[in-house]
Design goal:
single chain; 172 residues; alpha/beta; Rossmann fold; 6-stranded mixed β-sheet; 7 helices; 38% helix; globular; binds flavin mononucleotide
Length: 172
């Protein structure tokens, strides 16, 4: 079983999640490698795929969404899991599984490639690395509350999810 973990990351935290996932799959004896969407990997060369993107303004990064659309035929024929690296902080009373946190593209992806699951993971933000537009957006009062500085990635959650993928792939 050979799995590709494809990621789109603006500032590196989604790449880190993809690397944790690939590492955890390997721990379970599944051959896995994390590759950036920029390298345009061919999912047809793998038995299964995990695809994830950072989320900005409720959307996946364009290159990640286009990767899914461009490879839809091959992806629809394989087991695929999706993840989003998104929220940094939640409004009280909400959880990462709330449908309103789901990036806008996920409904379309469910229809075209039938993923086994889509999971939202907490992300990370280092204000010193933000580009000009993102820095300006973060200053807006509505955004400020929801975009605190820090690394909120939860390695245990990520590993548990990847472990579940490995168990599914190992089941004949
Ligand atoms: C300007 C800006 C807008 C963001 N918008 C969203 C959003 O709409 N939904 C969300 O869940 N996270 C949002 N985030 C959080 C990022 O998705 C999070 O920081 C993510 O881990 C970044 O991944 P990357 O380092 O791989 O680019 C936003 C972050 C910034 C700086």
């Amino acid at each position: 079983m050979n799995v590709i973990v494809v990621y789109a990351s603006r500032y590196g935290s989604t790449r880190g999640i993809a690397e944790f996932i690939a590492e955890e799959l390997r721990e379970h004896g599944v051959q896995a490698e994390a590759r950036s969407v920029d390298a345009n990997p061919n999912p047809g060369e793998y038995d299964a795929a995990v695809i994830g993107s950072a989320v900005y303004m409720e959307h996946w990064l364009k290159d990640a969404a286009e990767f899914v659309r461009r490879n839809r035929t091959v992806l629809a024929e394989r087991p695929v899991w999706l993840f989003s690296s998104g929220p940094l902080k939640l409004e009280p009373g909400t959880s990462p599984d709330d449908p309103e946190l789901e990036p806008k593209e996920i409904g379309e992806f469910r229809e075209i490639i039938h993923p086994r699951d889509h999971r939202v993971f907490f992300g990370a933000l280092d204000p010193g690395r933000l580009g000009f537009a993102h820095r300006a957006l973060r200053k807006l009062p509505a955004a400020r509350k929801l975009l605190p500085e820090g690394d909120f990635r939860n390695r245990d959650d990520i590993e548990a999810w990847a472990g579940g993928i490995a168990r599914t792939l190992e089941t004949p």
